UniProtKB/TrEMBL annotation, chain A:
Signal peptide from the UniProt entry: 1-21
Coiled-coil residue spans: none
Entry keyword Phosphoprotein: no
UniProt KW keywords: Signal
Protein name: 40-residue YVTN family beta-propeller repeat-containing protein
Keyword hit for Signal: yes
InterPro entries in UniProt: DUF5074, Host-pathogen_enzymatic-act, WD40/YVTN_repeat-like_dom_sf
Source organism per UniProt: Patiriisocius marinus
Spans traversing the lipid bilayer: none
PROSITE patterns, alphabetized: PROKAR_LIPOPROTEIN
Automatic annotation (TrEMBL), chain B:
Annotated ranges, domain TonB-dependent receptor plug: 44-143
Extent of the signal sequence: 1-17
Protein name: TonB-dependent receptor
Family, as annotated: Belongs to the TonB-dependent receptor family.
Pfam families assigned: Plug (PF07715), TonB_dep_Rec_b-barrel (PF00593)
Cellular localisation: Cell outer membrane
Domain TonB-dependent receptor-like beta-barrel: 163-585
GO biological process, one term: siderophore transmembrane transport
Principal cellular location given in the protein's record: membrane
Claim: Metal-binding is one of the keywords in the record: no
InterPro entries linked: Beta-barrel_TonB (IPR000531), Beta-barrel_TonB_sf (IPR036942), Plug_dom (IPR012910), Plug_dom_sf (IPR037066), TonB-dep_rcpt-like (IPR039426)
Annotated keywords: Cell outer membrane, Membrane, Receptor, Signal, TonB box, Transmembrane, Transmembrane beta strand, Transport
Molecular function as annotated in GO: siderophore uptake transmembrane transporter activity
Length: 361, 611
């Protein structure tokens, strides 16, 4: 009898191995301390878009004491931000996180990051947001394969609902508001755009369309003029085109001047700081003065010297140049902060595929 | 007559006990020459054979079957969605999937989506670990999976109906009819599986949105013994599936995907004296359509037609030596929304020798010369020995060079394809120890695999990903496979388990590849008493890295899942069976791909009629 009892005990032990879960839920993750609510009003947000389909977009916060806090949205709100966070817009006390592949706008308090609302209705593949009085304007690709369903969604900032859609040409991307007019750059969705749509903010009607070069990826207003950087079509399109930088008169909405890049050069981003326009070519940072308006031949600095692999986010503000490195797009990225002469000031790890920077103060 | 109720006992049989087969080299004539004996078989590696009875106990997808019954790690983008394997720490396209000996990996992606294989259409599935390019060609680096319709004779007219229904309106109907006389065997199988697949995500208030799927499968297998020396076999398989891809977040644009695959094969076997000749002619087609917006008519597609001819001649040099020579020709013709129409031709010649030096020692050598200049005409080889020390212990050693050629997408994708790609190359070696004792069998295998020129999509400084031959991957690991069965009076018990320890490192970074667990354990217990049988399946997958920097914040937790099933056999002829399964018995909240939760506890009922 004794033997059979020990047999059962053994069996029980044996069986318990296959019934009791010994999984890594119990692993001690390094839990990141999130600053208490209300602690986000002074610092820098870094948006990490996350892997496509992985629903792991996140936001990193760098406070003024250089302390880095990851995943602040999920830390505060106890849920994930979503799939591919494209950009953030700020208006009054709110931050509007545009989550592209989730087709949502997450509206949070910019200082506490507590969720206020999630807008989903009439949002399909949203890209960027800008504000004018009580309205938000959000570019949407719709179905990326459909060239005729793209639009600018008009968000009522009181109800946080989309009121109407303004149909536009394919691939509306970045947008700026100036003098009561909304300028929408058509970088292209799955195709390639080459225009800027001008919309009257008051009437929400399309006023005109300005033809620029292929792939207008950067758009900015400086000294009353609109500057548009067109990257040109890349070689893999089998229809490579030249890149150009346009200066557009915002009174007449016509091209006033343009600079043409050498062929096979495809610049990206367009940032303004202190009467200078900044852009990048591969990992190199260039500057154009809006006064001379001449293309430089040499960069102000090369990020590859600091081991930067994939320049994916770029911002210039108040003499500081912020650069996001997406690395292999399959690991945590890094942020590099330079001064205006290209001296590296700061470098730190963030989360997956950092794509943009926002200063909150 | 008492019907044997051991389900698991007979189901998972390990062909490790191969010595009995090599012995048959001595027995000339029918026994040895009945094809499968030496055809494509390698004596110095290990194969798990999953028979009909075990196929029935698992859900109809190849993903589910292999997840619970093999060392292969599977990642599934939500239940029934795209699913890919990692066999011995390799990438998804480094597992060769064969249909009755014909490689059916997609020419566009290089992989087989394991949720587009309906296991109900086959009566045997063989899982062979390790390199097999000499016999199975491109892609057999981590291992090979062969979907087999075994042809049986002399069983008369039989019909088999299997119906299952369960949670989320999931159902399967599988009907097989067979007529087999002494010289002719014809089998037709029809199968449909479908599900609303709207399961709740455990521990959340979300449900799986847009995950519904259905698929239909027709399988046909026939054999005609023309005379004592010639047999013709004809096989066909048709698969048509439609899936909505479940959305990662609820408001995302909904998509759908359709697959249409056809396979047909005619095989002529003949035995003349000491010669055994085998000719296979096959055509396969693969076609997908992807709708990025379910409400739009716009879709992208890929479409490849393949013609494969395989010839092999075996010559029994002496009673203990078998020499084989063969040739393979493959013609692919593909096009797609992003691939201009392209054809390619591949040919290879093979030569192999199996020699039994003594009753306890055998060696085999295989060579394969590829003849496609684009890929540098690689010469592949395998060499192995098998030593049978006693009835208790056997040793197998095998080493091989294997390869995988770039796919249509890699080479020809408009603007992004890289026509200068080289094949991936793998050099590997393994050693297996086989222990048999009465009703128990244990196999322990250690292996080493070096893969060079790994094909990866690498982002350029423009952020665009292009395929490149990149780094080297070094893989090593340990596998254990155990089986035990016993019958005492009316009781029968069985236990099967597999365990894999896998290290798969990128040599550039010395980091484990993403989505390769260090540990995977499966176990299955079976118990039968008279008309009743019960079984318990268990799976424990170790944690995996989801980012290449392998930082702990991005780890996907390990998980364990278990299924419990019970069935009862009825009828005067014991030809009806009813059963119930509790899937994910412990209601584990788990995912095999980041943020793609799989179902919690759910029920499935089945009914099996034989008439």
């Amino acid at each position: 009898m004794k033997k059979s009892i020990s047999k059962y005990v053994f069996l029980l032990l044996f069986v318990s191995v296959f019934t009791v879960s010994c999984t890594s839920d119990d692993r001690d993750d390094i839990v990141q301390e999130t600053p208490i609510s209300g602690a986000y009003n002074n610092g820098l947000f870094i948006l990490n878009e996350g892997g496509f389909g992985s629903s792991n977009a996140s936001i990193t916060f760098l406070d003024n004491d250089d302390q880095v806090y990851n995943s602040i949205f999920s830390g505060v709100n106890n849920r994930d931000l979503g799939d591919v966070a494209q950009s953030i817009g700020f208006n009054e006390d709110n931050a509007y996180v545009v989550v592209n592949n989730s087709s949502t706008i997450e509206i949070v308090n910019r200082n506490t990051f507590e969720s206020i609302a999630t807008t989903t209705s009439m949002i399909v593949n949203p890209r960027f947001i800008e504000f004018s009085d009580s309205k938000g304007f959000i570019t949407n690709w719709g179905d990326p394969n459909d060239v005729s369903d793209d639009y600018v969604a008009v968000l009522n900032l009181t109800t946080n609902q989309v009121e109407t859609k303004i149909p536009v040409a394919e691939g509306p991307e970045k947008l700026v508001i100036h003098n009561g007019k909304l300028y929408v750059a058509h970088q292209g969705g799955y195709g390639y755009g080459n225009s800027v749509t001008v919309i009257d903010v008051e009437t929400q009607a399309v006023v005109t369309s300005i033809e620029v070069a292929d792939v207008p990826s950067g758009i900015i207003v400086a000294n009353g003029s609109l500057y548009v950087l067109c990257s040109g079509k890349a070689p893999f399109t089998n229809d490579e085109t030249v890149a150009k930088l346009f200066k557009i008169n915002t009174a007449t909405d016509t091209v006033e001047a343009s600079l043409t890049f050498p062929s096979e050069i495809h610049p990206s981003f367009l940032e303004l700081d202190n009467n200078n326009l900044y852009y990048t070519i591969a990992g190199d940072v260039y500057v154009v003065s809006i006064i001379d308006f001449q293309l430089p031949t040499t960069p102000i600095f090369q990020t590859s010297n600091n081991g930067l692999e994939s320049l994916y986010g770029f911002k210039v503000n108040n003499g500081s140049i912020y650069i996001a490195d997406a690395k292999d797009y399959d690991s945590n990225g890094e942020v590099f902060i330079y001064d205006s002469t290209g001296i590296l000031q700061q470098q730190f790890s963030v989360e997956i595929i950092p794509n943009s920077f926002y200063i909150n103060n | 007559m008492k019907l044997l109720v051991f389900i698991f006992l007979t189901c998972v049989s390990f062909t490790n006990a191969l010595y009995s087969q090599t012995d048959s080299i001595n027995v000339l004539g029918e026994v040895f020459l009945t094809t499968t004996r030496l055809k494509d078989s390698v004596y110095t590696t290990n194969t798990i054979k999953l028979k009909d009875s075990v196929l029935r106990l698992n859900q109809a997808s190849l993903t589910n079957l292999l997840n619970f019954n093999s060392t292969i790690y599977l990642k599934e983008n939500g239940l029934g969605m795209v699913s890919s394997p990692s066999f011995r720490g390799t990438t998804a396209s480094q597992t060769a999937v064969l249909w009755n000996g014909i490689n059916i990996n997609s020419q566009t992606t290089g992989q087989t989506d394991f949720n587009t294989i309906n296991t109900r259409g086959f009566n045997t599935i063989e899982v062979t670990a390790g390199g097999g390019s000499v016999t199975n060609g491109s892609g057999a680096i981590g291992g090979s999976i062969n979907l087999i319709n075994e042809i049986t004779y002399n069983t008369g007219f039989t019909n088999d109906l299997f119906i299952n229904y369960g949670a989320y309106n999931t159902y399967g109907v599988n009907y097989q009819t067979q007529y087999a006389s002494k010289k002719t065997s014809v089998m037709l199988g029809l199968s449909r599986n479908a599900s609303d697949n709207n399961y709740p995500y455990p521990e959340t208030d979300q449900i799986n949105v847009n995950g519904q799927y259905h698929n239909n499968n027709v399988s046909f297998a026939s054999g005609f013994k023309l005379n004592s020396k010639n047999t013709i076999n004809v096989f066909a398989n048709l698969y048509k599936g439609r899936r909505n891809f479940s959305v990662p977040t609820p408001n995302a644009l909904r998509t759908k995907y359709t697959d249409f695959n056809t396979r047909s094969l005619i095989e002529w076997e003949s035995y003349i004296g000491d010669f055994n000749s085998n000719l296979k002619l096959a055509t396969t087609t693969e076609e997908y359509e992807y709708f990025a917006n379910i409400n739009s008519d716009f879709f992208t597609f890929g479409n490849v037609q393949n013609f494969i001819a395989k010839y092999k001649l075996d010559y029994l040099v002496s009673r203990k030596m078998l020499l084989s020579a063969g040739a393979t020709y493959t013609h692919n013709n593909g096009r797609g929304s992003d691939i201009q129409s392209k054809t390619r031709n591949l040919a290879a010649a093979t030569l192999s020798l199996k020699h039994e030096i003594s009753k306890s020692f055998l060696y085999e050598i295989g060579l394969r010369q590829e003849t496609n200049e684009d890929f540098g005409n690689p010469l592949l080889y395998s060499f192995g020995v098998h030593y049978k020390a006693s009835s208790f212990y056997q040793l197998k050693i095998n080493t091989s060079k294997n390869f995988r050629i770039p796919t249509y997408n890699d080479l020809y994708w408009t603007g992004l394809g890289n026509p200068n790609l080289k094949p991936e190359t793998s050099y590997q070696a393994e050693m297996s120890h086989l222990f048999s004792h009465k009703n128990a069998m244990l196999t322990v295998t250690g292996y080493y695999n070096q893969v060079t020129d790994l094909l990866r999509y690498v982002p350029g400084n423009d952020g665009v990903f292009r395929p490149e031959n990149t780094n080297e991957v070094e893989i090593y690991g340990l596998e254990g496979i155990f089986s035990y069965k016993k019958k005492i009076a009316s009781h029968s018990v069985s236990f099967n388990a597999t365990y894999a320890y896998t290290v798969s490192e990128n040599k550039e970074t010395d980091k484990q590849l993403i989505y390769v667990p260090f540990h995977k354990l499966t176990a299955a217990f079976g118990y039968g008493y008279k008309n009743l049988s019960a079984y318990y399946q268990y799976l424990n997958n170790g944690e995996v890295f989801t980012t290449t920097d392998t930082i702990s914040a991005n780890i996907l937790d390990s998980y364990m899942v278990a299924n419990l099933g019970i069935d009862y056999t009825l009828g005067r002829q014991k030809n009806y069976k009813i059963g119930v399964q509790i899937l994910n018995l412990w209601d584990e909240a788990y995912e095999s791909v980041l943020n793609r939760p799989l179902p919690g506890r759910n029920f499935n009922f089945y009914l099996n009629l034989n008439f």
